[in-house]
Amino acid sequence: MRTRKSKKNSLLPALVVFTVILLLVFTALVLMYFGKIPGIKAMDAKRSDISASTAAATNTAAESKQPPDNTGEPEKEPAESTNPDELLISWQNPESFAAKKIMSDGSVRKSYNDGSSIQFWAMVNNKTAKGYKAPYNMAFGSPDMYSELEGVTTFRGNNFRNAPSWGSCNVKEKKLEIVWTHDIGAVSGVGSYWPGAGWTGQPLLVHWSEEVRKLMNINEDLKAKDLVEVIYPVFDGKVYFLDLETGRASRPEINIGFTTKGTGMVDPRGYPLFYSGQGLNENNGKKGAFKYRIFNLINQKEVFSLQGSDSVAFRSWGANDSSALLNRYTDTLINCGENGLVYKVKLNTKFDKGAGSISIDPDVTKYRYKSSYSANQGIENSPAFYRNLMYFADNGGTIQCLDINTLEPVWIYKSDDDTDSTITLEETADGVFLYTANEIDKRGKAGARANCNIRKLNALTGELIWQRDYSCAYQDYINGGALATPVVGKNDISDMVIFNIALTGTTNDGTLVAIDKRTGKEVWNRHLKAYSWSSPVDFLSDDGKTYLILCDFLGDMHLIDPKTGQDMDVISVGGNVEASPAVYNDMAVVGTYAKKVYGVRIK
Ligand SMILES: [Ca+2]
Ligand SMILES: [Ca+2]
Questions:
Q1: What single DSSP character describes residue 77?
Q2: Closest-lying ligand to the alpha carbon of 482?
Q3: 113 alpha carbon to ligand 1 midpoint, in Å?
């Protein structure tokens, strides 16, 4: 034991040590405050959120601006880099992390302080790969770097899922006008009738390069035209190819033979490859296997497929509504299945423009997991990416941030119910955030109501920034809550995020709500007499004003002022719209239950 004397003798060194520690802590705090230490940015962001909301009460002008950065030099973002190694973001386990255990079968189990856990398997050639590390690094850049093509090439356009429109529109009259329609069919299957196009059903709008256009089997008369092609897989089991300007077929249909409900994907490198999931395994009495398919668009032939009913999956239902992403820097496809698996596919693409040929030779890696939050498997939303971090949610309500290179979850979050709305991302000076909302499904009881929970999370830590709840009616077949993917405001509406919530009053109506990104408070709230599963679409006019298009189950297409939520124009597109429109300059395209694809000019 130390005596009083010896303590006195050590006073000077102790003081020196104390001063050094104090200096270190002070330096660390300064670095944390200016966001130089990752992970701490999160706390900083939350704080900025609170201070911004306080400031908003007295100074609305300051609200839309970024908070002042006293350091002068914001962190350099390698946004324009196309080198995955430079885009990589390292991460740390969140504070809620408790333990990580390697299991005897080669899987890993991560547990958290609240008692939750996730067990996960990386699988190469359908065998668990112990200590999996990707043979190459993969990461996405800024969302505007996602695609080399002009247009909408995947659901909501990019890896942040924030671009359902492309280009700019000269809005004068603030009116919508149907300029063409194209007939599509219907099928019966799995106990229901499926006319037209379904959820999420966003048509792809592709402005091909002249070189690639001339290689493909596009109708001869259109080969000389600077074509923007509508590529649209729908309920009737066909993929339609249309001229955006006229709505006429630009080439023959591909007959998949089975329904697509979700959104396809066109190769963002501008390669003639098309990717599509399958929504049902029954078509007017004919049954068949679930497949995820890749087509060569030079000759429209199928070149590869993944079996939806995957032997390693924990769920046998093999549908695929999710719209994939393709990492063009690494030739890698990322796709999610309703079987509960994430697919990472090295395509080994060979595109010979001179010879007019394209081939792939895929290597398939799978990520499988079990979450303690729910045993319900299946992913129906479309994956989002910040650099090497992937974001998705499932039928059981587990939201995950997954490192795509190690196939290890960074954090998990309990959303409390089926979450089919696609997670949207945003990177700001305050940090990286995601917006998500769930539906009323697993919590539902006949005649009862439950809250649709809208949340903003810190995307790097999984920490809740704010939450808003909306009471919804429960219905087992047509779920209430958020099936739509939100508009994350940009440009003149960069302060708000706009969600579309179904069944907020009765089982017929809904609510469109704009929420202040920082405070989580409502900017406006608009009652919709007809509910909607269709995702609202934001597009920009030449004069810098953002407009919204929203479709609903009564078949109305609304042109909406996103500053107020009020209609500027309404037209009928014939029937229930579960699908989401896509916009290219002044043309909006969507398929509806009226068994037609509509080409609508924004005037
Ligand atoms: Ca679901
Ligand atoms: Ca559901």
A1: P
A2: 2
A3: 27
Which ligand does the CA of 502 lie closest to? Answer: 2
Residues in the chain: 603
Which residue ranges of the chain lie beneath pLDDT 70?
1-79
B/e letters for 519-557, b = 16+ CB within 10 Å, e = fewer, are: bbeebbebebebbbbbbbbbbbbeeebbbbbbbbbebbb
pLDDT tens digits, residue range 458-499? Answer: 999 999 999 999 999 999 999 999 999 999 999 999 999 999
Residues 260 and 378 reside in one and the same domain: yes
Say which CATH number the domain at 381 has: 2.130.10.10
Tell whether 111 is covered by a domain: no
Where a domain ends, among 19, 54, 76? 76
pLDDT digits (tens, 9 = 90+) for 101-159: 999 999 999 999 999 999 999 999 999 999 999 999 999 999 999 999 999 999 999 99
pTM above 0.90, yes or no: no
Distance 333 CA to ligand 1 centre (A): 22
State how many domains the chain has: 2
Please tell me whether residues 71 and 147 are part of one structural domain. Answer: no
61, 76, 91 — which closes off a domain? 76
Q: Which residues surround ligand 1, an ion (CB under 5 A)?
A: 380, 395, 418, 420
Within a domain: 81: no
Ligand nearest to the CA of 479: 2
Q: How far is the CA of 143 from the centre of ligand 2 (A)?
A: 28
Q: Are 116 and 63 in contact (CB under 8 A)?
A: no
Q: Which ligand is nearest to the CA of 378?
A: 1
Q: Which domain holds residue 37?
A: 11-76
CA of 576 to the centre of ligand 2 (A): 18
DSSP string, 394-429: -TT-EEEEEETTTTEEEEEEE-SS---SPPEEEEET
Classify strands 582-584 and 587-592 as parallel, antiparallel or unpaired. antiparallel
